[in-house]
User: What shape does this take?
Amino acid sequence: MMGSNPPEHGAKPRSNRQRDSRPGHGHHRVVRKQPPRPTSNRHNIYITSKTDFKAQQRRCEELLNAGAKEIFLHCMGFSITRGLNLALRLVHNSEGALSYAINTSTIQLVDELHPLCDAEDVTFRQRNNSALHIKVFNRSLFDIVVPEQSQQFRGKAGKARQ
Amino acid sequence: MSNSQKLEYDSSLGGRVTLPSHITTYHYAAGALQEIRSLIADAEQTTQRSSKLIFQTLPKHMRRRAMSHHPKRLPRKYRQAHKSQMSKGGNQPVNGKRPSRKYRRRPKNLMREYIRRQRQHIWLETHIWHAKRFHMVNRWGHRLPLASCDKTYRACYRASAQHCLLQDISFYGCVELRGSLEALRQGFARLTSPECGLGIAAKTFVSGRREGNVELFADGQYPQGALQRVSFMWRPLKKEEEQQQPEELAERTLWLWLHPSAAQATIEQLVQVFQLKSKKQQKLPLEEEKEMEEEDKEKETEEKELPGGIKEKPLEKPLRFWTQTKAFEVEPTYSNLDETLHLVLMQRAFSRFRLTGPRAQGVLAASLRPKQTENQDEAKADYCQAALQLSSPSELLSNLVMGYQVVDPRLQRPKKRTKAEIVSQPSSSPGNLLLNQPKTLPESPLWSKETRQQLAKGIMTTQAYEQLRQQHAVVPGSPCAFEQEMQAVPLILIQRPGSQDSSYKRLAYGCGWDVIVPAGYGMNLWLTLTMWGARPGGLRELDTVAREAGAEIHLPDTVAGVQESAATAEELRNRYFRLPPNKRTNYRKLAIASPFSAPWKHLVRDWSSSSTTSFYVLRHRQQLEMIDECLKRRRPCLPASLPEEALIQIHLRLVARGNVKDNALICLPTAADHKQRWHQFKRNEAAPVHVEPALPDLNERERKELRQSHKIQLKRLRARRVREKRRLQETANRRVHIRAANTAQLVRSQLETMCRLWLPTDPAELRDSVRRQCSREVFGYVRSAGFSFTEASVCAVGYVTAAGLQQLLSELPHGRGGKSPLMCLVRDPDSRDYRWASFQLNLNVASPAF
Assistant: This one.
């Protein structure tokens, strides 16, 4: 389970609904929209099934090593296992410094159904998808705050470099 | 009343003698012919006479001292001729120094210079801004920014994927069509095909809620004769209009955005299909005279309209016509005979800016503030504001059109260049915004001509604005009272959804907004957008964004595509022959049939049973889906109805090492290659799967001999001339010069033969010269290639033939790699290495994702 390649190899399971949109079956083409993102800063990481697992892991580790107290992994649907894997891997590799907390939620998604003939208009389809929000945080008792370098020191260093 | 009028000469003296109201054309032509003849004779005489210089021909009393040095001593009409004469004779040119920089930079002179320079190539509104920062190129009759002078290739990709890339695409010309829905639908049915996707009068577009895309073909020639892809938008109906008339009869307005490369051809097609006539020259019925004086007046006006031209014909009936010719039309107009359909070319009426990337939201939200006016409804402005606060443009309805009335963009600038932050407090949920838009959302005053003219009049110039600010702003940077009075700017925002197929390209890559700005406000908005952190890009970025999205802007069978590939082929060929011979790639040794351009026609010819000489790109969506299904299921039975001339667009991705350039060959792997692949895969080898054996170049010796003989011949000719000179010198008592060589013709023909011997034989000459040019069968060519940041590997867009695809499927080894993507071989034109590339079909050829 902790291998560098996640176990969820292969294609995503296809739902029956999607098969309906194949030629000859339906009168529309399903177009999925980008799911909404509540916040977008560096501490919120959205897990996709395409991004390289190792790259994501390194990104999280770098964030945590740079002094972030907590990071959030958001994953939805098919990539939930992947997010869980990542969180577990992070915690396992930290040798007890990190811990995690999990929240579940349901996300409402809207798909556009694009018409295939001129006489119809765009219609919509609403569906829900489950999502997971994993907080990975530093649980060390002594919260060491890295002090900012003083102005004087920085000035000297600058001169020395010259 | 008649006394106050100035009478005709003869009507005051000799009674009522009026000028003839018509003149027969042959009489007129005979007169004109005589005039031309005498003019030509005169001109010939003067040229024969002029063995003298101009100032020597002047009569004695008009001659002045040192006239040849000071052209201003000549009468003014001779000065130009004198200058040209003096500069020819090896004398120092009379038109001496370039005027001083100070003189040239005076506003008046600078403006004059700018106008002069715009005559040849049209400038965009943001031209001067771009010219200071970008490499500019002449393309499609415009002077356009190609790429920034800074190194911004990667930065522009990052902007398009994560931030905001800003491009000026105002060179897309807008054409307005007015007419009934039914007439327009019938006309466009001849130019488009329902197989490519939705038509122009599809229900989702007609309401004006969404912008549409349609592929245009020459009248009735589908699938051949592709012109270009056109984006269009309908003017939304107002509520009163909807009730008044049935939908089919009401006059609707349609805007087409045409690419300048094929704009002329498209307009010609439209004129032909809708049977339009230019309004530049039209016959108007003449008002019949009621009084004598009125007639006189009319005659005067006629004379003015047609100085020396054809006058109107008298008819026995009282109805008469006169021809009105407009010397200059701001907006060239065409209409059909019964005046129900009009076509207006709106030249430079708008600027169109393209913002790509998720941060386009933040940039637009920061630089556009809704202006409260009495006739604007609140719901619309609220919706626009809420829509711009979502985290990505792609969360909205795809191709949504929003009319938005904002305050002057100059008022929304930050003091320093800052990154616009996304305010992540959406007032309503994205789903809600997607599902419910206010009815009036797409309406914009920009659609009416009067409003546009008023807007153009009411623009406060930047200078006036700055002066007012100087007077009124007490604290620098604080808002002033007069700024409230500045007119509102109506904009049209068009959403672009980006990639919508997550299996082809990651969702929403290339999403963004197009902003349509009324003329005059382009520069103001542009500066505001860049100040809010949008990264400006040029034409290069249009191509890279398209390539990253796995598609192409101009398909190879469209007018622009053909032009572009011809131009690059010419450029590459010239570059090739500029190189010294030992630096040139010997394409004969590499077994490359056509090194500088992809020979689509010959490729199609070699793969079809008949000898066709035309090709087109397959845009039929259902057929593409069927082929895709076959590819996925590995069924070697493509639909039988596939035409042989069709090319199928694929997206290639190199599996391991290697690079691919444009015009690379796409080849069929053999069974041995498949074996070799697994062999290498096990040993983790990265060597090319197959190396083309070098062919002998049979022309090498011939070239050498030709070169030698040419040199010898030139030497011999020179020796002959030297001998001739010496012989003449013996008898002459003046110094004799050697005769000019006159070998230009000889040298040129030598160059031509040499070029022919260097390059491989033209694929047009021999059948199968493209398909079997090397040790692997070629079934396609790459059109654009490069490293793709979205895929983190080398990717390319290419086209293959259907028959080749069929053969690839039938030769697949059994049992292995059931789920992995299909593979083919790729070889660069200047390399011998074949590499593996996986490929997938692009289904959205007709409606790409960017």
Summary: Confidence is low (pLDDT under 50) at residues 294-315 of chain B. The radius of gyration of chain B is 34 Å. The first strand of chain B starts at residue 122 and ends at 123.
